[in-house]
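Figure 2 data, in text form.
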Amino acid sequence: MFDNIAGLRPEEAARWATLVEESRPILEHDGMEAVQAFLAEHGTSTVQAIAITRALLGQAETPLQVAIEIVTTSTVRQ
């Protein structure tokens, strides 16, 4: 899922993939703001949250700028 990110260690890519999968039911039941709170609670940086959010919404379907706006406008990142 995150194989295209240069320099990302395999164990970190696996952690991010796990966070994507754990975020799916949160998104479905509680919405994106709850996903952002979940990611912040798990210690993700803003850049990590952007990558994870984009993967959650679909890399091909979600422009990078959309993921950036979702994360940076989230109340948990203020």
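Caption note: The chain is about 65% helix and 0% strand.
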